Amino acid sequence: MKNKFKKVIAASLAVSVLLAFTGCGNNQAPSADNKKQESASTSTADTAGMDEQSKKRDDLYQQENQIFADHKDAWDKVFGLMNKNSAGESLSENYADVLAGTVESNKDSFTEEEYDTLCKDIETIRGIEEELAAIEKEIAEADSANGGSSESDESISLFQDFTGKDLDGKDVDESVFKNNKVTVVNFWFSGCKPCVEELSKLNELNETLKTMGGEVVGINTDTLDNNEDGIKEAQEILKAQGASYKNLTVASDSAIGKYASSIMAFPTTVLVDKDGNIVGEPLMGGIDDQANYDQLMEQIQAVINQ
Amino acid sequence: MDKKIKSAKNIPARFRGWIQAAAVLLTNIHIPNLFKGKIYQGKAKTMCVPGLNCYSCPAATGACPIGAFQAVVGSSKFKFTYYITGFFILLGVLLGRFICGFLCPFGWFQDLLHKIPGKKFSTAKMKPLRYLKYVILVVFVILLPAFVTNSLGMGDPFFCKYICPQGVLEGALPLALANSGIRAALGHLFTFKFTILVLFIVLSVLFYRPFCKWICPLGAIYSLFNRVSFLKIQVDHEKCIGCRKCIRACKMDVKVTETPNHPECIRCGECMKACPVDAVCYHYGFSKKKQADDQSEKSNGKGDLKS
């Protein structure tokens, strides 16, 4: 009996260990929210404004949902017809346009009465969506103003006021980025096999980008603080892999040096715009993998088109 | 009196669960990092921990010796690692597979899984599979990283990359859960290794420590030292009544009375708990001669007391 009890305790312990692992992921999101809320509450005026805004936003969402509920049958038909694949692309348009598009292209599926109701509803929704967009924008602005001291924002402006040297010892500053529409910054180290193996591909990318107004820049974490041995080894590897694009050494206690030291998965590649801001999410993994290459090119294209 | 001395010697076995829990905690001391999705990268990371514990676990205190071994052997600068080989020899001589039974986080994980109630199967008939871990040690930890290299002489850590389920459990899963960039980078390799992890979780419920018995290259290394390690298990054949309860109790399929220091013994001490006459106990120190001396001294003492 005692043994059985022990077994049950042990089993529940094992299960809770498993759950603990899944737990950390779920905890992540709320904790990020909390942080945001904390930083928001530092200035009470802002908080009040934020609260009001988000209340208004919720109200508007409520109104919209009410419209859908009022003419449930017709709308359920519309939602059934919506092209799920295009959902991602149409995020930037007004939601009413998306709805109207769906209704128009499937006009035959609705009775006349339904069609009229839908068109009327869509116009109401258009008004609500416009208001919503304005509020979202205000909230986003307030967020970025509040989050000025938060970690994520710090990392974004890493390359402003930036100084370093290339591996031949020539001084380099943020003007590197000013001349390019986009700069691909690749973080690597000499003992990292996937990093070394993508160097030739990065060199190719550099050639391609030159024609598009961009450039590839490498930062080897073994070369920080003008580490001579590190620089020598990095140069040998770059030469062996046929990579001739610019590689920089920076001070390890600079913002960019700290960013480089905090990277956990190499290679990591980020895009920097002409103001020295990191844009988009860092890419982890070598671009000798076609999927990674395509993903990076897509992001590059997006920055250039801005 | 005598009984007390014996059971005092077996204390580690009685508190094994707690020792394991403490070892896991010490091996993964940076708990808050689990939630941040960041790996501790301080000075202690140049040291190895005794058990199989992934370097990439956000909470990890030190480096995994098997991972570090592959990293050095596979680097372009070195072909062999004296530091980590020395570490293996030192720990092997000091503790042997006691590390598997008491200090290894993945060992504890399997122990806990095995406590899930249900039908349990014996591995006694699967003994040949034991040799697989030596093959894995030689091929995936030593040969492939050292000799399958690119033009610059860099090799992959083959065991970490293609086999190790501890890497998925402690490294990939917590990092991916807390870090969106890493989540985005997961691919087929992760799926493959996650399948291995799930396989060993299921096997661990059905069998006792399948990974330690068949796969673990670290266990394979320590097992070579069991016979010469300072930490040994002794069977007092004068006391032994030949009931074979210890052999039945042994989950690592060791014939305790014949080969108490068999390479498979993880020093868990189940045999000591099972022994009705306290004939099995730990012994720490030098040769058997001294042990014989101890024995005679003890019997002398006993004689004195009685007389």
From TrEMBL, chain A:
Signal peptide: 1-22
InterPro entries reported in the protein's UniProt record: AhpC/TSA, Thioredoxin-like_sf, Thioredoxin_domain, Thioredoxin_ResA/DsbE_sf
Keyword set includes Kinase: no
Source superkingdom: Bacteria
Region spans: Disordered: 27-59
Thioredoxin domain mapped to chain residues: 153-305
Keywords of this entry: Signal
Protein name: TlpA family protein disulfide reductase
Organism: Hominisplanchenecus faecis
TrEMBL record, chain B:
Lineage per the UniProt record: Bacteria, Bacillati, Bacillota, Clostridia, Lachnospirales
Transmembrane segments: 82-110, 131-148, 185-208
Name listed for the protein in its UniProt record: 4Fe-4S binding protein
The keyword Signal is assigned to this record: no
One matching Pfam family: Fer4_10
Keywords from the named record: 4Fe-4S, Electron transport, Iron, Iron-sulfur, Membrane, Metal-binding, Transmembrane, Transmembrane helix, Transport
Listed PROSITE patterns: 4FE4S_FER_1 (PS00198), 4FE4S_FER_2 (PS51379)
UniProt-listed InterPro entries: 4Fe4S_Fe-S-bd, 4Fe4S_Fe_S_CS, Electron_Trans/Redox
Protein species of origin: Hominisplanchenecus faecis
Chain ranges of the 4Fe-4S ferredoxin-type domain: 231-260, 261-285
Keyword Transport: yes
